[in-house]
Amino acid sequence: MQNKEIELLIPELRPEAGLRLQKLLPIMQEQGLDAVLLASSANVFYMAGRFFRGYVYVNSDGQRIFFLIRPNCFLTDGKEVIAIRKPELIPDALAELGISMPKNLGLELDALSFSDIERLKRIFPDAAIGNASSVMRDCRMTKTPYELRLMREDGEHQMAAYRKITRLYKRNMTDVEFQIEIERVLRLEGNLGFLRTSGNLMEINLGSVISGDNADSPSPYDFAMGGAGVSPALPCGANGEIMKPGQTVMIDMNGCFNGWQTDMTRVWTIGDVEELARDAHECSRRILRELEKMAVPGVEVRELFDRANSIVEEEGLEQYFMGHRQQAAFIGHGVGIELNESPAITPRCKVLLKENMTLAIEPKFVIPGVGAVGVENTYVVTPSGLENLTPFPEELTDLL
């Protein structure tokens, strides 16, 4: 039985797709681009509301065309959705629509392979090539009301799963066994079971469960916390050791339930832990409370990092902040379709906060012999400060 052909753009998402187009066009103009040709999974999904193999072409006049290679179940109309076998057919299709070739074309130079970029350059030999990756990062930094609704839903599902964590623990469990139980709860809650990240050097499974000194194991990935992992093939997160009394267990698991994501970290203890760990955890909470108030539109992102760092110095916790043996150079990041979107909250980031930006802020500490502590929440920037999309209890909670 053949599948009935369906529209590529879901009708209810057409107004939303228009809003995203309105955000994109001014940024293209600022970058001097006549058109962009998008092919990465994140940006195709952003522009179409679903993923397909092919290309999304947008020019400065606001004309948007979906060039579809696979799958073949969508209606094609010759105007907005055009079926092609290969990208070399794109110029002829544009010509048939009366659309002139771009003089300045944006390609996703940060996301596509060298061979793909060279192939697309040959298809548009007369166009100067710019970087559409930076254009799309800027476009996706602020969220539409529809996107914020989906991220709020993510936060609700993620918190629902986290509420079950304490009952999943059993004495003498390994961190991997614990993570498997948490993953099961997440999937039953509706988690899509994958974590979309930006950059070809970022790899992770459904998140991290890190206990004890494994938190002090440096990772090759640009994460706030490391972890040795169970194999050199994926050296991050849980390492298979039994979680022991006197240790903390940091849980930073995936919040992707609909294509968008929330990022949330909470910490549990196994029995009593030393006072230094408790003090550092409360320092993390203090940082979040202050940043929630100061992070309003117009503030430079680096000011958030500077204020967090000054609080850490006031409390004498610098040697443990954002790692111990290896320290991360950021305290948070944008979040949305990809886990690690712009802006990165670093001491050099001069990006100005804008209303409806979404940020994951994660001031964390590693205490040798105990483990990692700290809190991560996902926020949306509002005129009065940060709105928390993951308002789950932040106190250290005992698993025993």
How is this structure best described in words?
By secondary structure, the protein is an alpha+beta fold. The protein is built from 10 helices and 18 strands. It has a 6-stranded mixed sheet, sandwiched between helices. Strands 7, 8, 9, 10 and 18 form a 5-stranded mixed sheet that branches. The chain has a 5-stranded antiparallel sheet with strand order 12-11-13-16-17. β11 and β12 form a beta hairpin. It starts with 13 loop residues before the first helix and ends with a strand.
The parts where pLDDT drops under 50 for at least 5 residues are none
Radius of gyration: 23 Å
Strand tally:
18
Secondary-structure element order, as H and E? HEHEEEHEHEHHHHEEEEHHEEEEEEEE
- State which percent range the strand residues make up: 15-25%
Q: Which strands sit side by side, in order, in the main sheet?
A: 4-3-2-1-5-6
Defining key terms:
single chain, alpha+beta, 400 residues
Provide a compact summary of the structure:
The chain has 400 residues and is an alpha+beta fold.
Question: What order do the helices and strands come in, and which of them pair?
Answer:
Blueprint: H1 14-30, E1 35-38, H2 41-48, E2 53-59, E3 64-70, E4 81-83, H3 90-96, E5 104-107, H4 114-123, E6 128-131, H5 132-141, H6 145-162, H7 165-168, H8 175-189, E7 207-211, E8 248-256, E9 261-263, E10 266-269, H9 275-294, H10 301-314, E11 332-334, E12 341-344, E13 358-361, E14 364-367, E15 371-374, E16 377-382, E17 385-388, E18 397-398
Parallel strand pairs: 1-5, 3-4, 5-6, 10-18
Antiparallel strand pairs: 1-2, 2-3, 7-8, 8-9, 8-10, 11-12, 11-13, 13-16, 14-15, 16-17
Helix pairs in contact: 1-5, 6-8, 9-10
